[in-house]
Amino acid sequence: MSEEKFDGMFLGMAEQCEGGIMGLMDSFFGFLGRKSDFYTGATQEKVEKMVLDAVRKHHKVAAQKLAEEKKSKEMAEKRRQERIAKENAAAASERSAPKIVEVTDEEAEAIEKANARKKLMQLVPKIQEVTRRSPMMRKLMKMMKRMKR
């Protein structure tokens, strides 16, 4: 909180400075030169060290905050992806769940024939491969083609 107590004043100054951040920094360092012994009370190396120490301190804090925000966003994205995956799995499960439908005997017979035909058609490529090599299998293949019609 103590660092934030001057935020309003600095924000007002930043809005009035030309050149954005550079203008604000130029005004601040000019103020130090005019109203303090910042430059005359210490060597240039000591002044530069104080400035760099302050910059490094705040840069480290900003980098840590950025890393935490990035980690937080990644975790939120991971949770979102997991939620989507669960929703997709639930939807797929719902779509693939067997549904019980009452059918007549004639419809059941037609379904069984269709399933048998479907299974047979899945075997056709394998059978064709074998029939190329066996005369007996060629005869069987002809019979199957007649059944298919």
Task: Describe what you observe in this structure.
By secondary structure, the protein is mainly alpha-helical. It has a domain of 44 residues. It is built from five helices and no strands. Helix 1 packs across helix 2 and helix 4 packs antiparallel against helix 5. The protein is rod-shaped. The protein starts with 6 loop residues before the first helix and ends with a helix. The relative contact order is 0.03. The mean pLDDT is 87.
* Contiguous helical run count: 5
Low-confidence residue ranges: none
Q: What is the ordering of alpha helices and beta strands?
A: HHHHH
Major sheet description: none
Helix content: over 70%
Instruction: Give me the secondary-structure category.
Output: mainly alpha
Average pLDDT works out at 87
Q: Looking at the structure, what is the overall shape?
A: rod-shaped
Distance between the ends: 86 Å
Beta strand %? under 5%
What is the number of strand segments? Answer: 0
Rg (C-alpha, Å): 40 Å
Domain NudC N-terminal: 5-46
Region (Disordered): 64-98
Organism: Bugula neritina (Brown bryozoan)
InterPro entries: NudC_N_dom
Structure at a glance:
It holds the Pfam family Nudc_N. The longest helix is centred in the middle third of the chain and has 53 residues, at 44-96.
